Amino acid sequence: MSGLRILVPVKRVIDYAIKPRINKAQTGVETAGVKHSLNPFDELSIEEAVRLRERKGPIKVEDILALSAGGPKCPDVLRTAMAMGADRAFHIDIPEKGDSGPEPLTIAKMLQAVVKEQNVNLVLLGKQAIDGDQGQTGQMLAGLLGWPQTTQASKVEIKDEAGTVEVTHEVDGGVETLRAKLPMVITTDLRLNEPRYASLPNIMKAKKKPLEKKTLADLGVEDTRRLKTLKVTEPPPRKGGGKVEDVDGLVGKLKELGAL
Amino acid sequence: MSSARNLTAALRRARVPRPRVALRPVQFTPLTSTTRTFTSSSTRTSDSRQIKYTSEAYNVQRNPNFAEISADDVAHFKELLGSQSAVIDGVTADAADDLEPFNSDWMRKYRGHTRLVLKPQNAQEVSKVLKYCNERKLAVVPQGGNTGLVGGSVPVFDEIVINTSRMNQIRSFDAASGVLVADAGVILEVADQYLAEREHLFPLDLGAKGSCHIGGNVSTNAGGLRLLRYGSLHGSVLGLEAVLPDGTIVDALSTLRKNNTGYDLKQLFIGSEGTIGLVTAVSIQCPPRPKAVNVAYFGLESFEQVQQAYLAAKGQLSEILSAFELMDGRSQSLVIESTGNKHPLEGEYPFYCLVETSGSNAEHDMAKLESFLESVMGDGIVADGVLAQDETQFQALWRWREGITESLSHLGGTYKYDVSIPLADLYQLVEDCKVRLTEMGFVGDDDSFPVRAVVGYGHMGDSNLHLNVSVRQYNKEVEKAIEPWVYEWIQKRQGSISAEHGLGVAKREFIGYSQNETMVKLMKQLKNLYDPNGIMNPYKYI
């Protein structure tokens, strides 16, 4: 195999350290004025792609292409991805439509088109985005491409020049190691690596890396929505415990509850 | 198999770091036991055996004018305060275990002999307690979260501890003016959380915020991480309620921004460390909570460049700059040693800086920050750096600054000097101290040397340096080598021997290095006027 051409799809989501709030109409999550960042699983994918290059394995990494689909702020996360080490980026401009984004099948079809067009032979993607929590895109993409897939990877190793890849993933009570041949789809899980910080020199360099804007139509895909979100509600609030002043209070409370 | 939602929850649990708060052990309040506990004094509190009594370590004599607490006094207080949880009585019962957290500090450096802790619930109760103590000549120590660094809130002999933890109500908040009125015993983080829900911010932030009380913050005029942006408590505190030793309740709980009607007496209680009165409530001006916060972390080759970076930050980030912190290389390697975390930068540098911006518009701030970063990188002022890309990285980067104190405490004892020095000389103190201690043969890598490292870090933006001498065990000779040398060094440069920690017990003899005789005399006059019997926080700096 000549070289690895890696596609890393990334998503801009509400920062996972921030507590999301449901909007007043109960149709989705409030996104205006809320801090967004790179989906943490996608951060792992980018990091892994960069590490594959740094490891200088049997197959040289030729290209790392980051891709994000969505509104006008997507380039923010693409710049982060390029600051971490991606070579170039595609922004697939999808206008906001209702409260939720395109469905996983649309995204998978779009990625399929990019894979064909860009001659990609490895797709590294997060196992899920923490906003929709659907976790379907990677699997659908592998199905559409007819490629082997390994999901929830906690270790990725390129074994030889022929493109044999070994992927370890966690299963209940242990780990499972799988072998497949490129081209393939790998979805990433938490223990895969520890993403690096975007260093200032790399942030500067990332500004000069090519970022191409495209539309779904360019890729021959239509944004069809077959699901309608009816209602989004918060989980019931946790009932807090009470405080007692002293031992007598505690004893009184326990008696009241019939525990004594 | 867990559902995707659970996995997300697991992700949040797995990767959200420990919050930046509560870096100090949270003080717990033990329940009062009414029955006598029969623990022999030799087996109890095994981990506190090593803490030396302050009365021995500092060679102070108990003032014979103070009365001894009697069983009658205790009975009086119990009647006065009603609730049994308001009194921890070690006079008529053995409550040594329960008293221990009030008798010592979190650094395990100071230890008193108190036998009575009182926890009044409001200013009226405080007034009655103090009035009685004043008449009986019983000495008292006001105590909040007991997170101080100079032993100011720890008793020396048998002073009664008046703890503010039960005065913990937020009284009011006005969103239009941003004025918060709260009891002295409200924990800083609780106050900030309350304000966060109302899109405001407490204008003070410090490592101990999970434990410290705002009354204590005001009494010690705490500085902290955001002083650069929001100013000193002398400015943001609009009013307070305090109780004088004779029981007079000073109601200066104004919520006005401007009030030029005579002496601004509230200022006497800010930073006087409980030597004049006990603060029971505070009204404070709170700014709107910034919507966009960014953090960058730099590695620099020299202190010269640190100063250049600070000037550039002030000039280019101006109104959005909210913190500029300095950490030297040694302090960061101690954090690595203690936490095992991976350092954000690849190479090693003698200096590191943390720059934070806070503003209302993320795009505007980012544009400014990026042009600042480009200029400092381009001009070669900064050798390397990172910019937090998400909230987790933001918190992780702050921990490299805020975690220093905690890391040092894991590695042994620390002599802490919190000083203000003109910016140009700021780091020279650390260099000189290191040379001095090394020449005297105290510094080394193995256990035969008492000193592990001499480190410096601090609030660059406020010309405030923390000189820390990390020791394997507290050692009189090392202490003698540092003091009063360090104070003389500072005096020569017109610096302050205590920028934000206060004087307490630790610096009780050294006030003269930063205040002249006249100033000290005026302070004593005020002290004698309001506390003629000297019962308020005795044996400390005044």
From TrEMBL, chain A:
A Pfam family matched in the record: ETF
Keywords from the named record: Electron transport, Mitochondrion, Transport
This protein's GO CC annotations: mitochondrial matrix
Cofactor note: Binds 1 FAD per dimer.
Matching CDD domains: ETF_beta
Ranges of residues in domain Electron transfer flavoprotein alpha/beta-subunit N-terminal: 26-223
Function: The electron transfer flavoprotein serves as a specific electron acceptor for several dehydrogenases, including five acyl-CoA dehydrogenases, glutaryl-CoA and sarcosine dehydrogenase. It transfers the electrons to the main mitochondrial respiratory chain via ETF-ubiquinone oxidoreductase (ETF dehydrogenase).
PANTHER family according to UniProt: ELECTRON TRANSFER FLAVOPROTEIN BETA-SUBUNIT, ELECTRON TRANSFER FLAVOPROTEIN SUBUNIT BETA
Subunit structure as annotated in this protein's UniProt entry: Heterodimer of an alpha and a beta subunit.
Protein name stated in the entry: Probable electron transfer flavoprotein subunit beta
Organism name: Penicillium salamii
Lineage of the organism: Eukaryota, Fungi, Dikarya, Ascomycota, Pezizomycotina
From TrEMBL, chain B:
Name of this chain's protein: D-2-hydroxyglutarate dehydrogenase, mitochondrial
Catalysed reactions, as listed in the record: (R)-malate + A = oxaloacetate + AH2; (R)-lactate + 2 Fe(III)-[cytochrome c] = 2 Fe(II)-[cytochrome c] + pyruvate + 2 H(+)
Keywords: FAD, Flavoprotein, Metal-binding, Mitochondrion, Oxidoreductase, Transit peptide, Zinc
PANTHER family the UniProt entry points to: D-2-HYDROXYGLUTARATE DEHYDROGENASE, MITOCHONDRIAL
Cofactor section: FAD
Organism: Penicillium salamii
A GO term, aspect molecular function: D-lactate dehydrogenase (cytochrome) activity
InterPro entries according to UniProt: FAD-bd_oxidored_4_C (IPR004113), FAD-bd_PCMH (IPR016166), FAD-bd_PCMH-like_sf (IPR036318), FAD-bd_PCMH_sub1 (IPR016167), FAD-bd_PCMH_sub2 (IPR016169), FAD-linked_Oxase-like_C (IPR016164), FAD-oxidored/transferase_4 (IPR051264), Oxid_FAD_bind_N (IPR006094)
